[in-house]
């Protein structure tokens, strides 16, 4: 396949960015989206030009680093798929593809398609942990966890911190990410000691970072490659309300 790419190029956080057009030639449909970018970058390097900067690590849909907006959709808009797991067979020969970084005030662009997602780290640092001594492996079975809670906690723990939810939301809200991290710990017995301080501190940090509020649009859940459900946000709001009633924080 031969494709035309419009790619956001931006030298650094201070400089202005712009779209630059490239031709992606001889792309094999079984290549991943990132492999297609590798081919384009190889050609740029051979010509002595600066390759397109994008973040990636696992290329298996588990690390959350490969975020980019493809034709207006975070990760390309195929349900349950990260950019690294998106394959070129979803495109047709002759297609034009627009590629941009996440756009949110709390995720400033560092270079080309790479944004600074350290705001997510600071939300985790504010309360995304437990202090309970979990003991050794066999002790795990000493505390019984209802099956539905274990399943729901595991589903929430699937969040890879990619930021697609923020990129998809017209308010650039980080509610789905924050709520997933809160649900993951708050549904388990080991997460109970900090349950209410956790929600207060993580929501405070989320607001401090400049993410917008949730207005129930639901684009976050639609864009999430790990299909985190919206009801984690309802759970976070309930915990926040209880925390306020208890006078926590
Ligand atoms: S909730 Fe989904 S979209 Fe948001 S950071 Fe987690 S995995 Fe990515
Ligand atoms: S590179 Fe790890 S999720 Fe895409």
Automatic annotation (TrEMBL):
Its EC number is 1.3.5.1. PROSITE patterns: 2FE2S_FER_1, 4FE4S_FER_1, 4FE4S_FER_2. The keyword ATP-binding does not apply. Its cofactor is [2Fe-2S] cluster; [3Fe-4S] cluster; [4Fe-4S] cluster. Signal peptide: none annotated. Residues 150-180 form the 4Fe-4S ferredoxin-type domain. Keywords: 2Fe-2S, 3Fe-4S, 4Fe-4S, Iron, Iron-sulfur, Metal-binding, Oxidoreductase, Tricarboxylic acid cycle. It holds the Pfam family Fer4_8. GO terms for molecular function: 2 iron, 2 sulfur cluster binding; 3 iron, 4 sulfur cluster binding; 4 iron, 4 sulfur cluster binding; electron transfer activity; metal ion binding; succinate dehydrogenase (quinone) activity. Gene3D superfamilies: 3.10.20.30, Alpha-helical ferredoxin. GO terms for biological process: respiratory electron transport chain; tricarboxylic acid cycle. It comes from the Bacteria. Belongs to the succinate dehydrogenase/fumarate reductase iron-sulfur protein family. This is succinate dehydrogenase. It comes from Roseiflexus castenholzii (strain DSM 13941 / HLO8).
């Amino acid at each position: 396949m031969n494709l035309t790419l419009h790619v956001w190029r931006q030298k650094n956080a201070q400089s202005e960015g712009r779209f630059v057009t490239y031709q992606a030639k001889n792309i094999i449909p079984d290549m991943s989206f990132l492999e297609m970018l590798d081919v384009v970058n190889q050609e740029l390097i051979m010509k002595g030009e600066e390759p397109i900067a994008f973040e990636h690590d696992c290329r298996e849909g588990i690390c959350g680093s490969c975020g980019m907006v493809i034709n207006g959709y975070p990760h390309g808009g195929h349900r349950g798929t990260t950019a690294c797991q998106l394959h070129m067979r979803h495109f047709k020969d002759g297609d034009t593809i627009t590629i941009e970084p996440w756009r949110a005030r709390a995720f400033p662009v560092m270079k080309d398609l790479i944004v600074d997602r350290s705001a997510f780290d600071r939300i985790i640092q504010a309360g995304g942990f437990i202090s309970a001594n979990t003991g050794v492996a066999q002790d795990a079975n000493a505390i019984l966890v209802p099956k539905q809670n274990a399943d729901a906690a595991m589903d929430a723990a699937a969040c890879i911190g990619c930021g697609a939810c923020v990129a998809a939301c017209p308010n650039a809200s980080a509610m789905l990410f924050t709520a997933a991290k809160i649900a993951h710990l708050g549904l388990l017995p080991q997460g109970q000691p900090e349950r209410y301080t956790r929600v207060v501190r993580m929501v405070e940090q989320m607001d401090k970072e400049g993410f917008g509020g949730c207005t129930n649009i639901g684009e976050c859940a639609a864009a999430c490659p790990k299909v985190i459900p919206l009801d984690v946000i309802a759970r976070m709001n309930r915990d926040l309300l209880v925390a306020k009633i208890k006078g926590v924080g």
